[in-house]
Amino acid sequence: MNRTAQQRIEKMAQAHNLKDFKWIRPQSIITGEWVRMKCTYGCPRYGEKGCCPPEVPSVAECADFFREYQSGIFFHLAKRFKDPEMRFRWYREVNKRVLDLEKEVFLSGYHKAFLFLPAPCMLCDPCQASKRECRHPYLSRPTLEAFGVDVYATARKMGYPIQVLKDYREEMNRFGLLLVE
Ligand code: SF4
Asked: CB within 8 A of 14, min separation 6: which ones?
């Protein structure tokens, strides 16, 4: 993708109030089986989300998928909450913004546009927990973690901060990705 095309997409992102991002070569995204194991053993919501493991491809298939793209925008969203319960409303709001951007990029001619949400899909409560029964199949997207991405290693490689949080009141660093081609 040439610089003019990149600048056009960057303007679209900024119009959706997404200002902190870097272009990434998707081949450089780091995946790991350990990420899938953390979802399987340790996540209290394993099996409850239609876009999370086990309702996703294998880690090897996910890695192959990233290799099919030449470019993507890696988003950074930092946020701190006095009341940690407020984070869910923010997750919905940022997910909507990136979904709107994906739609705009797709409609502008990038037919392979594919989004990874910065927070798990929360369009329904409760989630149907199954891809086949998903209530909003046009809008449901996975997170990077769900696709086996080592977000810690990938974000650090991109020069972004990320660390293990001990408390929900600490500033969180969340990351999303829009593959563009
Ligand atoms: S759209 Fe609804 S049913 Fe589908 S994955 Fe998201 S929360 Fe679950």
From this structure: none
Q: Is 128 in the pocket of ligand 1 (CB under 6 A)?
A: yes
Encoding tokens for residue 133?
A: 């029964």
Biggest CA-to-CA distance, the chain: 45
User: Which long-range CB contacts under 8 A does 85-93 form with residues at least 24 apart?
Assistant: 87/168, 87/172, 88/122, 90/119, 91/118, 91/119, 91/120, 91/122, 92/119, 92/122, 92/123
Closest Cα to atom 8, ligand 1: which residue? 127
User: Which residues of the chain are modeled with pLDDT < 50?
Assistant: none
Cα 124 to ligand 1 centre (Å): 5
CB 113, CB 180: distance < 8 Å: yes
CA distance 178 to 99: 9
Distances (CA, A) of 156 to 61, 74, 125: 23, 12, 33
Cβ-based neighbours of 168, under 8 Å, separated by 6 or more: 81, 84, 87
The reply to whether ligand 1 has any atom less than 6 angstroms from the CB of 136 is yes
**pLDDT at site 168:** 87
How much is the pLDDT for 97?
97
User: Would you state the structure tokens that stand for residue 45, as one six-digit string?
Assistant: 């919501």
Tokens for 80? 């701190």
